[in-house]
Amino acid sequence: MIVSNPLTVRFTLNGREQSIEVEPSAVLVDILREKFGLTGTKITCDQAVCGACTVLVDGRPTASCSEFAFMVEGRSVTTIEGLGSPDTLHPIQAAFIEAGALQCGFCTPGMILLLDALLRQNPDPDEATLRHWLSSSVCRCTGYQIIIDAAVLAAARYRNETRSDARS
Amino acid sequence: MPPYSRRLDTAMKHAPMHAPNQLRVVGSHVAAQDGLAKVTGTALYTFDRSLPGMLHAKALRSPHAHARIVNIDTSRAAAMAGVAVVVTAKDLVGLNPLYGVRIKDQPVLAIDKVRHYGDVVAAVAAEDEAIAFRALSAIDVDYELLPPVMTIADALAPDAPLLFDQPQITALRPHGETGEGIPEPGPNLLYQFNHDVGDIEAALKACDHVYEDTFSFSRMTPYHMEPFVALARLEGNIIELWTCSQDPFLIRQDIANIFSVPDHLVRVHASYVGGGFGGKSFCKLEPLAVLLARKTGRPVRLCLSLDENFVTLSQHAAILILKTGVKADGTFVARDARIYMDGGAYSDASAIVTDKAGYRLPGPYRWTALRTRAYAVRTTTVPAGSFRGFGGTQANFASESQIDMIARRIGLDPLDVRIRNMLRPGEFYLDRDTPIDSDFALGLRKAADRIGYGQARPRGRGIGLAVGFKDAGGEARAARAAVKITVTGRVVVQAGACELGQGIATALSQIAAEILNVPYDWVRYGEIDTDISPYDQGTHASSGIAVAGNAVARAAQDVRAQVLAFAAEKLRCNPDDLYLENWTAQKGGKTFPLQPLAVEYFGGYGCEFVGRGFFKVDEDLTTALNAKRLFWMPSWIGIEVEVDEETGQYVIMDFVAGTDAGRVINAAAVRGQIEGGALQGLGQAMFETLVYAGEELMTATPLAYRLPVAADLPKRFRSFVEEHGMGPGPFESKGIGEAGILAVAAALANAIEDAVGVRVTSLPITPEKILSALDEAKR
């Protein structure tokens, strides 16, 4: 049996500094769900295939089921709970509700975070880009086109907000 | 009055419906009830629930397809630190260990032998999942290998090894005059459904052309995103269970039966269900979680990995042999069919899926005579059961493929042939069953127009059409509902229809808001708990809107009548003189807020008004099954494909899927159902399949199992929704949850033949199959 000492990991979680002791073998999703109670991050395949566990690590979409917890040392992690709250929805969250782009909802947190990463890089993605990006997450319910519609809606709002930010 | 109206009258006699143009909430754009919780990650699924002191369970699964269990030694595993208990079939002594729908043959843990790769042999409950997982490898099982039975042909071969030596417990529902259900009719046969209409021999003799074609249908895994999960605990002598199932009341019944406890001592909670597609219906591993909780006295969470879900339930693979006779002008006359459904190792829902595959095979067409023999076959593969489409997908693939083939063989247009034979609204299905309640021909023409049917196109491009056809609403189903109004006029709807993502919580809330004349956001759909919720037979068969929906509509009418009576008494008038709106009563131009009246009446603390509703489809043995169909669920698929004749590769240039919702209650939800179902069907048509190579499952891992992602969408992917206004649900609505998947594979096969003149009759339709058919055609 491998005996190993817990490691201390310091990282930013949803904008707040955190310090936590973890086993070297602990994976990020378990820490998020079990230590921090952030159950918005889901697990489906547990093998970095389906995208349900997607979180942002320094803004990059990351499969938290396949990332050791110690690997986020010094980095910034955003989960769905950090993106917006029921009172202050993020534009993508609002667009998903408005377009009806969710059904069972199990892929939804990962999809929204994935799109957030995309829209930060490319505020006006075309259909081909959206299809390409969304292909790293599985949605078994919607047939995707309605999610693409929500993404287009959200992207327009991103651009408007960016423009109004620039003016102010 | 057309015949369908008579039936609708009966179904709707209590429903006070507004004319469609007066609807405020039904059909309007509203935010999904579960939207805010799901986009913010605050929605709690069964997967997310935990309890103090909770143990985690893992199952040891058979590495063999078929073997006798000689010995199981659990001593090493049981002695490991952190392991609370290890259970095997020995722990089932004194229980009723078998479950299954109509035929109970599946043990909670394998007894004496294993019947498929992945069969559950033992289970461990431990302090955490990692310990439980490690303990599995310390369980020693001696197997004596038995010859596997991997395919329908293997199972039906003379002298094939038997999966079961003894007859199993059966409790079939009665069949009607033209149908017959036979449990375990022969070696390795689980079930047989016979369907006979007219004189088949005479009708076949009268045909100008008779064609026999064989179709091979692949199988998919549900791949619901939330894994199967159950959490059980004991509270005194009460078994409390949280499960991802869509059937909380059926699970209560199974648990009570298996553990021989009265059903009022079993309490089942349902949460948001993270997708189902069939995989969350009927009993699965809930009894194992309960067994472990009883053995340890602690809460136990049993959550399967996706790999385990692959070996828990699948769709039915099938072989369908259709002998179909027509007149020279394309009139359909007779169909003589044999269907072999691969039921896998255990019954699950195979008997009723087989009924439905057989009964749906004729499609929405007129026939003189039919003879169908549909069999569920036992094989040493993953158990098959409910899967979106429920036998209809198998039947539609074969039937809609063959109709196209026959039209082309006799030189007629496949669209014209379909329309010529199509049942019109109000015509009975097969003489006596529920009259057709959608304009199938209208929908098909619309799909044909949208996809550009009949337009000239270059070689290599083709268009395929297909009609999806399925009865829906289940068998003689019943549901209850309650609608509660607080003193502030806010509303909680209580019913047992589970929210799997189909939008039932939203639709039922819209129905209640419409009837009570309050804003939609005043209504909430309550959580489901078998102690509290009104009874529901399970969220199946696209029945939610028509069965639970009618129960909710009646409960809303009941509570509305109570409120009117209360207000009339307070205002000293006749209830008929009052008009309710936004928790006010209006009379002769004056508006009376109801809140102060109610608060005063209830003594300052407040109270609730509660209405109740019940809906049941009557049993009826005049047709093939045990009730008449509640409604018909159509889909219309049009596909334009471009095929490369050098390689067999193809690209779907355009795709359109349509359905008839009767009346749309929520447009986004309807669109989501039709498009989601259609893409699931397209995945199966193109590539998605669970593959066995010998005893080994080749595609049962997340990486190896290819399912549709956004990049697989056709170049254009569109849907349309008709409102033919003939549904039996509130406001003439009907369910559409399974419509999209039904006929997609046939439409693709039809498009490919249209493009390059070759026919693929097995799924998935791969470039290899097209290429080899092209090569054969050249020889």
Structure, described:
The complex is a heterodimer of chains A (168) and B (779). Chain A is α+β, with helices and mostly antiparallel strands and 168 residues long. Chain A folds into 2 domains: 7-83, Beta-grasp domain (Ubiquitin-like (UB roll), Roll), CATH 3.10.20.30; 91-167, [2Fe-2S]-binding domain (DNA polymerase, domain 1, Orthogonal Bundle), CATH 1.10.150.120. Chain A has 6 helices and 5 strands; from the N terminus they run E-E-H-E-E-E-H-H-H-H-H. Chain A has helices at residues 28-35, 80-83, 91-99, 108-121, 127-134, 145-167, and strands at residues 7-13, 16-22, 54-57, 60-63, 76-78. In chain A, helix 3 (91-99) runs antiparallel to helix 6. Chain A is globular. Chain B is an alpha+beta fold and 779 residues long. Chain B has 3 domains: 46-146 and 222-310, Aldehyde Oxidoreductase, domain 3, CATH 3.90.1170; 387-474 and 629-778, Aldehyde oxidase/xanthine dehydrogenase, molybdopterin binding domain (Aldehyde Oxidoreductase, domain 4, 2-Layer Sandwich), CATH 3.30.365.10; 477-616, Aldehyde oxidase/xanthine dehydrogenase, molybdopterin binding domain (Aldehyde Oxidoreductase, domain 4), CATH 3.30.365. In chain B, 27% of the residues lie in helices and 27% in strands. An 8-stranded mixed beta sheet of chain B has the order 3-8-1-17-14-15-16-25. In chain B, strand 15 (238-243), helix 7 (248-258) and strand 16 form a beta-alpha-beta unit. Chain B is globular. Chain B starts with a helix and ends with a helix. The model of chain B is unreliable at 1-16 (pLDDT under 50). Chains A and B meet through helix 3, helix 4, helix 5 and helix 6 of A and helix 2 and helix 17 of B.
